[in-house]
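Sat 14:20. Reprocessing the chain from the morning session after the first attempt stalled halfway. Input below, unchanged.
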Amino acid sequence: MKFSDVESTSWEELRPYVDTCLLPVTGLTGSEQPWEATKALEMLRDVLDCFEIPYKGRVLTYPALHYIEGEEGRFLLEQVCERLKQSFPYVILVSASDELHELENLIKCDLVFVITPKQLAESLPGIKQKIADRLQALWSKR
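Finished this time. Tokens:
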């Protein structure tokens, strides 16, 4: 489910079931050509499908952070995760950028998935199983 699917009148009814927030991270630098930015967004969309489709009703995808370069970007990401944790028990970062493996060390989120297009193309069933295993482990800690 995407943030834009939630109406203010239905949020309180949905809240007990939607305990996991997905925060997509595109990883753009601003130096991309328009078609490269489009490709990055399409790749992120494809990765998000691995979460949104099988876990619809439990996960809510927030708007993507697109530009998070350097220490300032990392600080912003940590702040956003901390604020989201005030509303959701679980916050998961999702990216399709090869450049963002360092995000796996973020302390303010519960999980980080950096799934590249190459990984997705080579082993979609394996990726889906890895996602399922990590989510189940996270959710069973509660």
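The chain has five helices and five strands.
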